[in-house]
Specification:
The protein is 34% helix and 23% strand. It is of the alpha/beta class and 357 residues long. The chain folds into 2 domains: 2-124 and 296-315, 3-Layer(aba) Sandwich (Rossmann fold), CATH 3.40.50; 126-288 and 321-352, 2-Layer Sandwich (Dihydrodipicolinate Reductase, domain 2), CATH 3.30.360. An 8-stranded mixed sheet has the order 13-12-11-7-10-9-8-14. Strands 3-2-1-4-5-6 form a 6-stranded parallel sheet, with helices on both faces. Strand 1, helix 1 and strand 2 (25-30) form a beta-alpha-beta unit. Helix 4 (77-86) runs parallel beside helix 5 (101-114) and helix 5 runs antiparallel to helix 12. It is globular and about 55 Å long.
Length: 357
């Protein structure tokens, strides 16, 4: 299967490693900075003859890849995705899938129209710990779900933002919730039944005067199934990343996933006693080198199989839209100072430009 990558920055190593592990044939690497491409070719010992581009339109026309991964700044995801779809390419789009609901809807609509597979890159769904928790949920082991909480207590400083001027801007990124926290927000919504009734949010910029968007966000969520959710996300933790955790509380089960990227099961308590908690903790434990975890490789494998068997990816474009919608709903609630009902008809990060001036 012919594979191309658009965007060779911070997250690209995970995509390259996943593509290599799944034995995809590299037919193009694209980045506005040619040095980024050369750096990845050397670091990953890729074939020096892989075509290198600074214009993805040219790459799509000449190489005609079967599968394209988009790992650029967030604000470019939608426009590049639509061009790739029009070129007949299947897609893996880094989170968030877009920065507006209108763009997310157009990606979904046009992907279906063109008959291509579109995957939102929420790779933490493939963590061994998360897959084990999801299995228990689908078996009904939790009973009625009461509530869940997502905590993302991380650190990002001036050095991080100064490396790329799009970070922390409403035009091309959003803040901590949209960039750093959206993976765990996705997991919380997914585990709690997906359908959200309403959201109450508060956001602030406490410690990053050089960015436009928030560095802290808190939200209360009411799901349509009667369950509740709590989100706490920040990039203000001193002096470095502390944790990313997901708690799920049901009538007959309690689970906590923690570690760098919810890759460790720390609590496993079920009334049915079907398994040994300590054994589960040992078996479903990963130690990734960074917060991105090991999920990209199985995500790629799933997308390849989805293409070959003509089924939807495990994490499809609709899932990407749902995660985006929840973050935008938190932003909207925080700005307006009131509850926000879902589904949102339309919203984008640009509606919050100037929020903290």
């Amino acid at each position: 299967m012919k594979y191309a990558l658009i965007g060779c920055g911070r997250i690209s190593p995970n995509h390259i490693a996943a593509a290599k592990a799944n034995k995809l044939t590299f037919v193009g690497l694209c980045d506005l900075d040619a040095e980024n491409i050369k750096d990845k070719v050397i670091k990953f010992k890729l074939d020096r003859n892989i075509p290198q581009y600074t214009d993805y339109h040219e790459m799509l026309e000449k190489e005609k890849p079967d599968l394209v991964a988009i790992a650029t700044e967030s604000g470019k995801h939608a426009s590049i995705a639509l061009d790739c779809i029009d070129a007949g390419c299947n897609l893996i789009i880094e989170k968030p899938i877009a920065l507006s609901l209108a763009d997310a809807d157009e990606i979904i609509r046009r992907g279906a129209e063109k008959g291509v597979k579109v995957c939102a890159c929420h790779q933490n769904r493939f963590n061994k710990s998360i897959q084990k928790i999801r299995e228990a949920l689908e078996m009904g082991r939790f009973g009625r779900m009461f509530y869940g909480t997502a905590h993302i207590r991380w650190n990002r400083g001036y050095e991080y933002y100064s490396r790329a001027n799009w970070r922390g801007t409403w035009e091309q990124d959003g803040g901590a919730l949209m960039n750093q926290c959206i993976h765990n927000i996705d997991l919380l919504r997914w585990m709690m039944g997906d359908e959200v009734e309403e959201v109450i949010g508060m956001t602030d910029k406490l410690n990053h005067p050089y960015i436009d968007a928030e560095d802290m966000g808190i939200a209360l969520i009411r799901f349509k199934n009667g369950g509740y959710g709590i989100v706490e996300g920040t990039t203000d933790i001193y002096p470095q990343n502390l944790e990313e955790t997901l708690y799920l509380f049901g009538k007959k089960g309690t689970v906590k996933a923690g570690g760098q990227s919810v890759n460790v099961i720390e609590e496993w308590r079920f009334a049915d006693m079907l398994d040994n908690a300590e054994e589960v903790k040992r078996e479903f434990h990963e130690n990734p080198p960074n917060v991105y975890g090991h999920g990209h490789t199985p995500l790629y494998a799933d997308v390849i199989e989805a293409i070959e068997t003509d089924r939807a990816p495990y994490v499809d474009a609709q899932a990407g839209k749902r995660a985006l919608e929840l973050v935008l709903a938190i932003y909207k609630s925080a700005q307006e100072g009131c509850k926000v009902k879902l589904p949102l008809k339309e919203c984008s990060t640009m509606e919050f430009k100037g929020r903290f001036q």
